[in-house]
Amino acid sequence: MTTFNTPIISQPGEGRIALGFGPHLIRISADETGNSFGMFEASIPAGEGPPLHVHEREDEFFRVLSGRFLFVCGERQTEVGEGGCVLLPRGVPHRFQNVGDSMGRLMIIVTPGGFEGFFQAVAESAPAGPAGLQAVSERFGIRFISAGTDAQAA
Length: 154
Fold this sequence. Notes:
The structure is a single chain. The protein is built from two helices and eleven strands, in the order ββββββββββααβ. By secondary structure, it is mainly β. It has a single domain, classed as Jelly Rolls, CATH 2.60.120.10. The strands form three sheets. The chain has a six-stranded antiparallel beta sheet with strand order 1-2-3-10-5-8. It has a three-stranded antiparallel beta sheet with strand order 7-6-9, with no helix packed on it. The two termini are about 25 Å apart. The relative contact order is 0.25. The C terminus is likely disordered.
């Protein structure tokens, strides 16, 4: 882990691809920021999104880069289009879904950082079934509330 005392710069298209639950472009990692911040981009097919889940460790900020998404957090539901932003608090069940008719893109920031490593961990471990996914998820402080882990996770 690096001490975060210099600017972290991610030029357009830079980053590393993590393939767990589809490609995620990791732009800035917790390792680069002393665990304070992580940022990645996700391309979500129409109709897709993760099942209801809880992050115990981090808050999540979403910016819709393209498309239209439904965000559900606790009792609140709202649709957000291109350019819109959503901040979801840790500890509250949430999910999102691309409600458009084409590929949508999200920029996701997590504070503190670390969750961005989840996608590479999934790709490397290739968890078998719900029990395997649960083991990887627990390492990252994530708890899935509903079935349907075939959906795109973010």
